[in-house]
Here is the input.
Amino acid sequence: MTLLKPDPIGRTALAVEITNRLRQMVLEGQLQPGEKINEKALTEQFGVSRTPLREALKVLAAEGLLDLIPHRGAVITRQSEAELAEVFRVLAALEGLGGELAAEQATDATLQEIKRLTQDLRRTFEQADRPTYFRINQAIHNAILGATGNDTLLRSHELLAFRVQRARYQANLTPERWRAAVEEHEAIAQALCSRDAERSGKLMKEHLLRKFHSIRGKAQD
Here is the structure.
């Protein structure tokens, strides 16, 4: 693990701040699957004690990004292709349903916000700004699911989404796939704004399945 120069964190919401930084390190591949967390090195890097760091590790363990192993410590999880296939297929079905319901239930204001976010997504792609792209991408998916007004769908989706967030972040690795993902989002936004429930659902489901296919073979067995 390559450590950065010390970058002390303020006292406010310390554990949350550390959680966010560690999560980003895992998503971006700075911490690799199977790698053991070096608590001493991270406390020095962040300028904190082990207490807030360990609180952050518990959160990331709950999200499925690492395992807390007795007598060994925290280890970044490995995900097999079979596990990812299972989760992505269920998520694709849920997001397909989400697209249908959002086209029927979303307010005009929400649809315009999704359209605006999709335009922002295009700009981050053109600027090759992956971290911002990923945040906007998540905001779009959350906005679509939130527009359904279906709490059961939201809870079911949330339970699974944590298990594949690292794979989703790393899915658009090639310029070709990244461009295709943006175009898929633009088609989804258009279908939603047209209130075409069937097409919205179909595009949402296909978008998730294509994302999975783009990472096949990259999972850690």
